[in-house]
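hey so u asked for the seq, here:
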Amino acid sequence: MLAKIRKTMNRIVAAMFLCFSFLSVYTLWGQEKETLVLIDTDMGKIKVKLYNETPQHRDNFIKLINEGRYDGLIFHRIIKQFMVQGGDVTSKDAPIDKPLGDGDLGYTVPAEIVYPKYFHKRGALCAARTGDDTNPERASSATQFYIVTGKFFTDMELDKKEVEEGIKYTPEQREAYKIQGGAPHLDNKYTVFGEVVKGQDVVDKMHLVATNDKDRPLKNIKIKSMKVVTK
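ran it, structure tokens below
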């Protein structure tokens, strides 16, 4: 009798083990790992993660990185309390007086605006694009991106923006904009495809540099390299 009970218990334990193993594998399949990218600049290193919910932007960014497209380019547009922007393919070794901002690769990436889950909080990695007048589909530039620095907002200011923009901020957005800062006026208009996970202090240093009347830094800030990393 005791032997039968032990045999039954062993079967139950084995069945439970198989069940938990299956669930573990299923969880790994169902939760695709997010890609990490290291951006090495003259002012320090920035690590970003790319969202899986914006696959076309993620895959395009990875492709360009693996091709070395960003190596040697500069952050050509910086606006204090707003953002730092790079990715103009004509900016490599560009003279300090050369106008920049139009360099691209001749194609666009369809908009992948996942709002309100992803929004323009401090550290958001976003795709630049041309304006609505010529680009009503809000398709993104093939190469140009920006990282938000932004500024802090009060509840009263956010209430006003809700009326102006015709949107409703989530509790998470309100907390982020009040405590971390950001650029809420761009929400639901540009694709946010990642965020800074390490090195936001480097981005914050960048947005304080002196610029000319075209928002170009007076001293070039170079992207030395970009690469996909595992941690």
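Residues 12-30 have pLDDT under 50 and may be disordered. Residues 121 and 182 are 4 Å apart (CA to CA).
lmk if thats what u needed
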